[in-house]
Every structure is written in structure tokens, then in C-alpha cells.
Design brief:
The structure is a single chain. With 180 residues, the protein is mainly α. The chain has one domain (19-172). Helices cover 71% and strands 2% of the residues. The protein is built from 6 helices and 2 strands. Strands 1-2 form a two-stranded antiparallel ribbon. A hairpin with a 2-residue loop joins strand 1 and strand 2 (47-48). Helix 1 crosses helix 3 (85-110). It is globular and about 50 Å long. The chain binds cytidine-5'-triphosphate and magnesium ion. Residues 29-30, 33-34, 51, 53-55, 57-59, 98, 101, 105, 108, 115-117, 176 line the site of cytidine-5'-triphosphate. Cytidine-5'-triphosphate (CTP) binds next to helix 1, helix 2 and helix 3.
Length: 180
């Protein structure tokens, strides 16, 4: 029993550590979120292309914060591979997570959901999908070596929990308009 708990805790810890640059990218997009919408206020049909919740400030601020976080982790234990591999990995984690987030909002607008209206699972996991897609395309070996099936499962289970928790904190601190 104790052994099982230790194995689960280790897996969860690995999942959080490897995904941390993506988490930081996503969370700090809220902090940097600004005034210049990436879609420039344009519409596709009756709805905005992306909406006011996706800004250039959030995009670049979020990616930069995620990269800085990853660099610090890399200095600590080289989790993200050797030079220059780790640069590709960190770019995939940060840019991929923003790509996933934008794609999620794009899809939400296409099905007619206004900015901030919740879409369970997509809201919590779109950025994970984006990060994994870019890792799979640009750093496949590192991805498959590090994201074993148990780590993948841990990410899918813990990300929605962490996401809801941080969003609730952001809402309480007045940085987010809705608690999800
Ligand atoms: N944000 C931003 N730019 C981004 C991503 C996020 O400015 N590229 C900021 C916005 O202020 C946004 C907040 O972070 O409102 C939370 O992001 P998210 O929950 O993804 O956006 P929502 O407002 O919920 O909009 P959507 O319905 O499109 O998910
Ligand atoms: Mg959202």
C-alpha cells in the first residue's frame, strides 16, 4: 500500500515538473492579459474569431514566463534534454500550450460560446493537447521517453484539478472575470 502511494506520488510529481512550463505559460497569460485582442476584434460569421480573452500581451507574456520557468528547471536538473534539444522542448511546451489555448477559444466561438462561458474539459485540457502536439512533432524522442503512459494519465487527471484551483484563486484576486 505504501509502495503504491509512493509510486503514485512520484508519477504525479514527474507530471507536474515536466508540464510546469506549460502550466506557467497558461497561468501567467491571465496576469499579462491585456488590451490588444489577437483577432483584432474581427468576426467569423456571427461570432468573434477568438474573442477578447485572447490578447497579444497574454500570448507573449505567457510564453516568456513559461520559457523562463523552464530554463530555471533546466539549470536545476536538465529535465528537458541536452543542448540544443531542451530549447525545442521548452518552445513546444510554451508555444504549444498557447496554441492549444487559442484553438480551444476558436472552437468555443465556432459553437457560439461567448468569451468566458465554460466548456468543461476543453477549457482545462486544450493547452495540454497543444503542448503535446508540438512535442510529438518537434521533439518526439524526448516526449515518448519522458511522457510514459502513467505520466500521461497523471497529467490528464491532475491538470483539470490544478486548472480549476488556480483559476479560482485568480478570480478571487480579481484577475479573472469568471471562477473557471
Ligand atoms: N489571456 C490573454 N491572452 C491569452 C490567454 C489568456 O489575455 N492568449 C487572459 C485573458 O484576460 C483571459 C484570461 O487570461 O480572460 C483567462 O484565459 P481563458 O480562461 O483562456 O479565457 P476566457 O476569458 O475564459 O475566454 P475563452 O472563453 O476564450 O476561454
Ligand atoms: Mg477559459
Amino acid at each position: 500500500m505504501l509502495l503504491i502511494m509512493i509510486i503514485i506520488a512520484t508519477t504525479v510529481w514527474t507530471a507536474i515538473w515536466l508540464m510546469l512550463p506549460a502550466y506557467v505559460t497558461n497561468a501567467s497569460a491571465v496576469l499579462f492579459g491585456g488590451k490588444r485582442p489577437i483577432d483584432h476584434g474581427l468576426y467569423l460569421g456571427k461570432n468573434r474569431i477568438l474573442g477578447d480573452g485572447k490578447t497579444y500581451e497574454g500570448l507573449f507574456g505567457g510564453c516568456s514566463a513559461g520559457l523562463v520557468c523552464g530554463m530555471l528547471q533546466q539549470l536545476y536538473d536538465s529535465s528537458f534534454g541536452d543542448f540544443p534539444q531542451f530549447i525545442v522542448v521548452l518552445l513546444a511546451l510554451s508555444a504549444g500550450s498557447m496554441l492549444g489555448d487559442l484553438t480551444g477559444s476558436f472552437l468555443k466561438r465556432r459553437i457560439g460560446l461567448k468569451r468566458g462561458v465554460p466548456l468543461p474539459l476543453i477549457d482545462q485540457l486544450d493547452f495540454v493537447a497543444g503542448a503535446w502536439l508540438l512535442l510529438f512533432v518537434f521533439a518526439r524522442e524526448w516526449f515518448t521517453c519522458n511522457f510514459s503512459p502513467d505520466v500521461i494519465l497523471a497529467v490528464i487527471v491532475i491538470t483539470p484539478v490544478l486548472h480549476l484551483l488556480t483559476n479560482y484563486i485568480g478570480f478571487k484576486l480579481g484577475m479573472k472575470e469568471v471562477p473557471w
